[in-house]
Amino acid sequence: MKLAPTLLALTISAATLATSTWARAEDAPSLVHPIYAQLPDLPENEVTRRAFAAAATRYKIAPLEVIDIEGAKPPTAPKTLKATIAKALKLSFSEALGDLDTDLAEISDLGGAGLTTAELSDVYLFHAMATARADWNAVVPPEMAAFNPARARAFPDYVRAAMLTPDRTLDAHTFPPQVVADFARGLDVARALPRVTLVIHGDADAMISVDGAPPLPVNGGLTIKDLPEGDHFVSVTELGRAPWGSTLTIANGTYELTIPDRAAVGLSDAVAAAHARRMGARFALVGERKPGAGSRLEVRLVDLSGTRRDGVIISATEDEHGAVDAAVMRLDEQARQIQQLEIAGTLTPAAPVDATGAPDATAPTLLAPPRPRATFHDDPAAWARDRWPLLTAIGVVAASAVVLGLAAR
What we know:
This protein has 409 residues and is of the alpha/beta class. It is built from 11 helices and 13 strands. The strands form 3 sheets. The chain has a 6-stranded mixed beta sheet with strand order 2-1-10-11-12-13, with helices on both faces. Helix 9 links the parallel strand 12 and strand 13 (361-362). Helix 3 runs antiparallel to helix 4.
C-alpha cells in the first residue's frame, strides 16, 4: 500500500519535470533564424513566402525575416524617352541630341532592355531628326541631301528606325517634311535588305526579347526567322540570374547566339549567417525561389561561418505545403543534431563570418529524404524526443489514474 504514494509522487514529478522542460524550451532563444529571400519582380514570391512562413510558425522557429534582394539597376531610357522626344519636337535639337546619345549607348550595352519595338524605333527616328536639325524650314528634296552633311549622317538612323517598324507611316502634321521624306527613303532601304535567321541557345528558364518584342522562352533553343540584315538588340532575363543584353550585327544567312553564363542573384550565405548571428541564433534557415517550372523553393541551412550545411529544392505550390513543412522540420532537426555534437565536443562550432565577408563556403546541396525515426535500442534519447508529446500524455494519464485510484480507496 505504501507503493502507491511513492508511484504517485514519482509520476507527478516526472510530469512536472516534463512540463517545466517543455516550457523552458518554448522560452529559449530559437536555434534557427528563418529568412525568406525575396527576389525582385517575381509573381510567385507571395505563394512561396506564405508557405515558408507557415512552416516556420508551425515548428516554432523565430519570426520570419524577409530580405528583399536588390535586382539589377533598371535602364534609364524607358523613363526619360518621353521627355526627350518632347524636346526634339520642340526643335531643342542640341539638348535632345545629348539625351538620345546617352540612350543609344545604353541600348547598345543592354540590348534595348525595357524598351518596346516602337520605342526603340523612336530613339533612332528622333536621333536622326536631331542630327539633321530637321526643322519645318529644312530643304525637303532628297537630291539636296548631298549639300547637307548632317542630313547624310542622319540617314543610317532613319534606316534603323525603319528596320524596327517597317509598317510605320509618319504623321505629316507631327513631323517636319524632311523627316517624313527621309524616313520614307529609309523604309525603302530597310524593306530591300536580305533576310537572316537568329538561332539562340540558352537555359530553359531564360526569356529573350529581340528588338523590343515581347519576351520568348528560350527552352534550350529558339529560332527567329525573317529578320532584316543588320544590327539587332537582344535582352535576356532569367529568375535567379543577372540580366544580360547585347547588340548583334547579323550579316550572314544565320547567326547562332549562345547566351553566356551570368552571375547568380540571391541572398549570400555569408549575409544570411550575419542576420542569424544578429538575432542570437546559431543557424540561418533560408527560403529562396529558384528557376524551374512551378513555384520551386530552395530551403537551406547555413551556419554562422556562412557554410551551407544542407539544403533541398522543393515545389511550394498551394497544394504542396507539406513538402515545405517536411523540409523545415528536417533542417531544424539537423541544426539540433549539429548543436548536440558541438556540445559533446565531437564537432568544432562554426566561427562567425563578417557580413561583408568573403565568398560563401558552400557544401554540395543534398537532396536527402527526411531523417528516419530513431529506435529505442539504437538511440533512446532520440527515440524519446521523437515521441515526447506521446510520453508526456502517458505520464499525465498514469498520474491521473493513480490519483483516482487513491481517491476511490
